[in-house]
Amino acid sequence: MPIESIRDVRAHLAEVVERADRDDQPTVITRRGKEVAAVVSIDVLRKYQQWEEREINRIIDERMANRSAGVPIEDVMKETLARGE
């Protein structure tokens, strides 16, 4: 998977986007040597979003089935978001 600085990506953004779209090859973008973002195809993004929604629903269903635990929905959401980091 290519890793490029923001400066390099700016110089050939169309090529980076084309690689993600046509070849399904993501590019990791760095700033001052730290990975900060990625260019991925829209299909990859949508699949991730669907997975995330399924995971949230799974956790909610799991917690709802065990009501005796009394876990607030806010805690479920915090746990879910923390898993995505």
Text of the CATH class = Alpha Beta
Q: Helical segment tally?
A: 4
Strand tally is 3
> How much β-strand is present in the residues?
15-25%
CATH architecture: 3-Layer(aba) Sandwich
**What is the ordering of alpha helices and beta strands?**
EHHEEHH
Tally of discrete structural domains: 1
Low-confidence stretches: none
Spatial order of strands in the largest sheet: 1-2-3
Alpha-beta content class: alpha+beta
Average pLDDT, all residues: 88
**What is the global morphology?**
elongated
Largest sheet: 3 strands, mixed
Overall radius of gyration = 18 Å
Helix content: 55-70%
Tell me the CATH superfamily. Answer: YefM-like domain
The third-level CATH topology is: YefM-like fold
End-to-end CA span:
20 Å
Organism: Streptomyces aurantiacus
Family: Belongs to the phD/YefM antitoxin family.
Pfam families: PhdYeFM_antitox (PF02604)
Protein name: Antitoxin
Offer a quick outline of the entry.
Belongs to the phD/YefM antitoxin family. The chain is α+β, with helices and mostly antiparallel strands. 60% of the residues lie in helices and 16% in strands.
